[in-house]
Amino acid sequence: MKKRIALSVILSILLILLPVIAEAHPGRTDSNGGHYCRTNCAKWGLKDGEYHFHNGGGTKSAPAATKKPTVKATTKPTAKPTSKPTATPAPALLVPKKQNVGTLQVYYFDVGQGDSTLIRTPSNQYVLIDGGNNDQGKNLVKYLNALGVKTLDAMVATHPDADHIGGLDDVMKAVEVKSVYAPKVSHTTETYKDFLTAVKNEGRTIKAVTKGESIPLTGVEARFLAPVNTYGDDLNDWSAVLKVTYKNKSFLFTGDAELKSENDMLADGVSLKADVLKVGHHGSNSSTSKAFIDAVKPTYAIISVGKNNYGHPDSGILARLKNANASVLRTDQKGTITAISDGNSISFTTTKGAK
Fold first, then answer.
1. What letter would DSSP give residue 66?
2. To 5 degrees, how large is the angle CA 284–CA 287–CA 291?
3. CA distance linking residue 151 with residue 134, whole number of Å
4. pTM of the full predicted structure?
5. What is the pLDDT of residues 209-255, one digit of tens each?
6. What is the DSSP secondary-structure string of 335-348?
7. Which of 110, 274, 314, 329 would be 250's cystine partner, CB 3.0–4.6 Å?
């Protein structure tokens, strides 16, 4: 009778504990006296996979020796992952190296499909020509900061196209601009309005560019050769064309000037000879005629260009420059291109490898 009573008590206790045992997180303890929680972890105040003890010792980091090795799956998963892969960070901006004072330096910035060039004179004066597209404004400011530019003696907006003036409003907010030059032609785009607003907010007025106008610089001549005439709605031919001369070396900056403007400069009889030519309109076949190249006779030709659907630079223009024995450097291949001149020679360095 006593045995039956004892057996009934044991069975009752087991029936009471069975649900608890079923909910407990299983797993043998290891040599350290603990194990990983696998099931019902939240009920016990644990996280899935948390290493802990059953004797009141709490949780702790799992010993390295007891960590289970990751097992690679032998079959392909049947379901696609629900989370998106981590986005690849954008490559860091390659800023040009600041050169020592005492030379003429020309930085042809890599601003993608657009134009932006900084001139630093031997007496440490700065001229910025164009500012790339709107999305390049912040990069342009980073370029200027890296080069220690706090004041621009002159800013030149060659013409109202967005890929030339888009970033100029950001520049005017970031550094002091003493004077602004642009041809006397307007546009109705928001980008152009932003440019005008920035000029007004800085308390500046735009100095109209015509042939023969000069930018006052110490020891360096900077003279505009175009626009020679008026060009109606043809914004490219309105481009301000600037020739910079330091001792025996010269640089020609053509914006997007096309054949009409080139022909007018040729007819005007002004000397177009330059050692370095910033090729017009990103190497488009609408610019850089054979007659114009023959007049410039460049030793080097710089093409500011990025990924585009316009066919820039045109293969025929590249062949024309090659036939003229001009060495071509492109920002889409070389990054920012820096020309350094002592007035008698010119050397180059780039952010994607020296020429």
1. G
2. 140
3. 21
4. 0.75
5. 999 999 999 999 999 999 999 999 999 999 999 999 999 999 999 99
6. SSEEEEE-SS-EEE
7. 274
